[in-house]
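Quick one: ALP1 protein from Jacana jacana, structure tokens please.
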Amino acid sequence: MGKAQKYVLLGDATYPLQDWILKPYQEEENLTQRQLRFNYRLKRAHSVIENAFLRLKARWQILLKCDDCSLELLPTLVLACCILHNICEAHDNPFNQEWLEGTEPTELPKPCQPAPAAMEDGQAEQVRELMCQYFESCGEG
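--- reply ---
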């Protein structure tokens, strides 16, 4: 869209809109088709991310037991699992669907109440609007 953007995290409606947290438009508002398409694409991206983490935990089940390792080690452990996963994929070592049997999708803790409007960043709406325009230009899917 002609403007350099930094990376963003995907959040749901309970998170404050920040220039680094992308969240959907509120459903109770009268949304345009473009905003509905944006929300749909955001939900799809979120489900892809959830599926990727589920597969990562299924292949590397040590990630299911990370509560017994130090917090300092955790980023290195996750990165090592990601690298090993990519090596497996590059060498045609397929993912075994049976691994998913021992892995349940976990609901990560989220805020219970929506963030107050005062926590929202005014510049973040511009980021969301740019992403909305980008999704619209990508066509259906």
